Amino acid sequence: MMMKLTELLGIELPIVQAPMAGAQGSAMAIAVSNAGGLGSMPCAMLTANGLHNELESIETQTSKPFNVNFFAHAAPAADAKRETAWHAVLTPYYKKFGIDPAGIPTGPGRAPFSAEFADVLEVHQPAVVSFHFGLPPEPLLARVRSWRSKLFSSATTVEEALWLEARGVDAIIAQGVEAGGHRGMFLSDDLTTQIGTLALLPQIVRAVKVPVIAAGGIADARGVAAAMALGAAGVQLGTSYLLCPEATISAIHRAALKSEAARHTALTNLFTGRPARGIVNYVMQELGPINEAAPAFPLATSAIAPLRAKAEADGLGDFSPLWSGQNATGCKELPAAQLTRELAACL
Ligand SMILES: Cc1cc2nc3c(=O)[nH]c(=O)nc-3n(C[C@H](O)[C@H](O)[C@H](O)COP(=O)(O)O)c2cc1C
User: Fold this and answer.
1) Which of 112, 101, 115 is nearest to 298 (CA)?
2) Residue whose CA is at the smallest distance from ligand 1 atom 13
3) Strand partners of residue 67
4) In this predicted structure, what is the pLDDT of residue 223?
5) How many whole angstroms from 33 Cα to the centroid of ligand 1?
6) Which of 40, 32, 214 is nearest to 127 (CA)?
7) The pTM is what?
8) What pLDDT, in 10s, does the model give residues 238-251?
9) 175 C-alpha to center of ligand 1: Å?
10) 38 forms bridges with which residues in the sheet?
């Protein structure tokens, strides 16, 4: 029998609030951990100093375990040719909005886990450190292990789950293709390898010995119970938390999640360079959802940022990443603590 997440971490509920970079900060993590689940602090868009401040804030407001999440991608070399090609694709839209491409500032990129982040973590030693896009290089990972934080990472295929288990992770997040936000895929960039949660979860559960956390398209208490019945040690939900008051997404994003538009999502690389699931909008229909010219992750972020800013100033989400999983029916305008307890109601 696989160890349940509640036993592994000494928490009350096997509910993980998914880390969501750009969509929440410490307030949501604190609320969920205090409610008995595992709150998560996403750090991909933070500086080391920002990380320190958020961790201090969490530690003063909860004594419960929480998760600190990082991306583990290799930072790509800048590719001037590809940047030029991508700017050419975007030029008609720059013209329409009167944007001077030469003046485009570098947008909020996403930084991989680094020695600088490890220095900050060492002071705080959180109960859980989780990664997306594989794992950081072994010397950095060894530092995290040395202070006995539990290590989690996402797998989108059985091969990725076996790879993570062989490197000693304490739990694997089985991320089905329904999931909102970035695909955690790291051994292959072939999107045909990506399968749904109901198919992925039991295959990973059978293949590994470590606890498996189900993620992707799970939106209510019955969905949580179903994942547990399939052998999950816990369940990680992201999209369902996006309408909570603690979420920091825009009014445009909130309105899209509440609308019928949320029924139609797709994987797109237009906003960052890596496939991520969001509500289909104007730019995804015009240029994608997948466009080969988009620069490598996370370099695609900056070129689209001014278009997003201009459209949002007009109240439009035409160029915004409206991250959402395939099932937004669990989004409720409830405090994250209450939502967490409701999600565990059928257990
Ligand atoms: C807005 C948003 C941002 C996300 N950002 C991250 C992130 O920073 N790190 C991470 O590991 N996963 C991230 N994810 C993926 C989640 O961890 C999780 O796999 C996903 O939310 C589960 O599917 P669901 O959205 O259908 O519940 C994000 C998901 C969303 C919706």
Assistant:
1) 112
2) 20
3) 40, 128
4) 98
5) 17
6) 40
7) 0.97
8) 999 999 999 999 99
9) 9
10) 16
